[in-house]
Amino acid sequence: MLAKFHQKALAVSCALLFAGAASAAQTTESATDMGLAAASQPANVTLMLKLRHEDQLEQLIRQTVTPGNPHYHRFLTTRQFAERFGATDAQIAGVQAYLKQQGLRGQVMDNRMAIRVQGSLAQLGQAFGTTIHAYKADDGRMFHRPATRPMLPAALAGTVTVVSGLSNERQFISHRIKAPKVLMPTTSFAPQSLHPNLKAAAGGNPTATGIPGSYTVGDAANFYNINPLYDRGITGKGSTIGIVTLSNFDPADAEAYWDGIGLVTKPHRITQVHVNGGGAINGGSGETALDVEQSGGLAPNADILVYDAPNTSGDFVAAFAQAVSDNLADSISTSWGLPEIYNFAALNVAGADVSDTTDVGDLRAFHQIFLEAAVQGQSVFAASGDSGAYDTVRGLGHGDGPGEFSAPLTVDSPASDPYITAAGGTTVPFSYSFSGGPVESIKRESVWGWDYLQNYFDTHFGPGLIDLFSVGGGGGVSVYWETPFYQRFTHGIRRSEKHQALVYNDPEAGPTTLAKLPGHFRGRNVPDISLNADPETGYLVVSSTDGGVVSSGGTSFVAPQLNGVSALLTQSLGHRVGFWNPQVYFLQNVFGYGRYSAFNSVRDGDNWFYQGKPHYTPGTGIGTLDVANLDAFLRLF
């Protein structure tokens, strides 16, 4: 049995896994109305304008990634996008005239699809037919949001589709989990503890440790057959990586990481773009550090653009809108998200059915941005989450007791959007033992779900000692986005499960149904591709806000790693890769798995609901990558 000290330490460590994630509950928890917010308080709002010819835009995107089509890999510039699909001069003039009447001024982005507006809360409330109040959440956090439903004036109703940023209530979660020290031994981060990569290439392929929990990008290169690209001198030269994040960071952290593993990188490669004042240096800064370290480590000669913004839904939209409108990054990733269902107005209407609501707010804003990115050839990746198949669990609590939420099967947003590549998580093979207990092993790369650890503790140390539900790679079925064209002929695609609802059991009022989720819905399946994400087989990160060198995991690593891989492919192909999903699903559907496949099926493990399979599964998507084979296939067309 574990010593009592170890039992207590283990319980505390696992509780800390979810520290900082409580903001996930802000959309569903009650808050005290403190009256009118300060009238003069400044705020930033993004107006998303309705796309013209959206059906033609979707058709063109498919053509850009269809071999043999005249438009194959012929992408639009931002100006071309604006001319064909952005708002007209007359529409923009109408919006600007209305804003001027309200004492506001809007900055039209180059894509002619978004207008950034800054004004006081009083001005913005008046412009959109509402009053904006201050609220105090149960945890003491202060925020503001409209007291009544905002209204668009008739003059704008046909032009503006989303007004994003009137509320700063919703905050997003970083999909990173620090490895609990009690669950694994720590390893010093020193050059003498590192082993040279057997496939080191000219230009500096990073060293690999071979130590679970202390892996580097060099280990990732070994896992997923990236080294043949380095052998050819492919290091991301000439490509640009974009990171969209909700915390600022110290670029010196990334430099320290690359130097620490002996990686030679392009100097002065990091450029920071602070959107709407930029994000804070806080507990999320380690997320930004790892995003830069991982993507830039796999592509050591790529440039890196970091778009950071405050952690609100409106600012997240604004950061993505700028990254895509700027059109400087060839590939973009984010490792932040929230459950898809938090975007539905139904969450504020007891008993409402998600399928009945059309107020999807930022889901629609993100969708338009990702459509633009796809037609411009920008590959976009998002972490799928770290709560397995039950995305609402992290930060909400779960169970049937008073003051707890139910745990419906849910997916993460923005990863659930059909025009983004959702990054899932696996556990690579390793052996483990805890406090002298029996040694067990993960023998094949598996779907990441910590029920394997739960079973280990329940079996060998008694049930009830620890509760790890539902830590694992995010995956499942969207209940808003329909099955996209590239998944229609993929074996293993699932429909949503029946009898799913988000219920809050109030200590006094009893249970309240906040959202009913449609069952048997033909929804977009998440994720698309997975890589190692289990903190037990995780990676080293240098983060000054976390005290230096830490061991972490989560799908936060997978999104930037795919971003770095995309930068390598951009150099190898001599042009942008474009929207990944139609291309990778085509390769998997036609060529399947095997020695020369670009993908490895993941047949073991589960994410607490979806099992590993020899085909697509919402546990890991179409599987993990063989990057060298993927590169070879893409260069054939």
Automatic annotation (TrEMBL):
Coiled-coil intervals, chain numbering: none
Active site: residue positions: 287, 291, 556
PROSITE patterns (UniProt xref): SEDOLISIN
UniProt-listed Pfam families: Pro-kuma_activ
InterPro entries (UniProt xref): Peptidase_S8/S53_dom_sf, S53_propep, Sedolisin_dom, Tripeptidyl-peptidase_I
Cofactor(s) this protein requires: Ca(2+)
Alphabetical keyword list: Calcium, Hydrolase, Metal-binding, Protease, Serine protease, Signal, Zymogen
Signal sequence annotation: 1-24
SMART domains reported for this sequence: Pro-kuma_activ (SM00944)
Annotated Peptidase S53 domain residues: 214-637
Descriptive protein name: S8/S53 family peptidase
